[in-house]
Amino acid sequence: MAKTNRRDVLRYGAAGAVTAATAVVAGQELASADPPPGLDGVTSQVPGLKDTLDGLKAPLDPRDFDEIFKGKKIRGLHGLRGRNELMINNRRLALTEIETLFVPADGSPPYVGTGWISALNHYDPVEVDTRRNREGLRKLARKVVDVLGDSELAPSAAQEHGH
What we know:
alpha+beta, 7 strands
C-alpha cells in the first residue's frame, strides 16, 4: 500500500476541489447568462479560482445590443445556444431564417441571401448579419418596434415556426 502523508492529501485535495469548483461554475456559466449565485464567497476562499473562472466566460458578440428604441427595450443576442435571440420589453420573438431575394435600395443588382422573418415582418425579411450587413438583428428589432407601436408582443410570439 502506498504511503500517504498529510501534505499529499492537502495538495491533491485542493487540486481536486479547484477542478470540481471550476467544472461546476463553468457549467452554470454555459447554461445561463446570469452569474451563479454566491460565487464571490467561493472565489475568495480558493486562491486563483476567480482568475480561472473569469477566463472561462465567453466573450460577448460585438454585434449584441441592449438598448431603448422608441420607449421599448430591445435586446439582441447573436449565436446564443447556436441561435440568435431577439427580445422586445423582455418578451422573446421567435425568428426564422429563410433564403430570399433582396433588392437593394441603392440601385445595385438584386441578390439571393439569407433573411430573418418573424410573426411581425413575415413578408418583409431583414438580411442576416453578413459582411455586407452587420446590423441585421438590430434593424429587425427596430422594425418590429415600429410595427408594434404602443402594443406589446403576445406570449405566442415566442413560438417557433418553420418554412
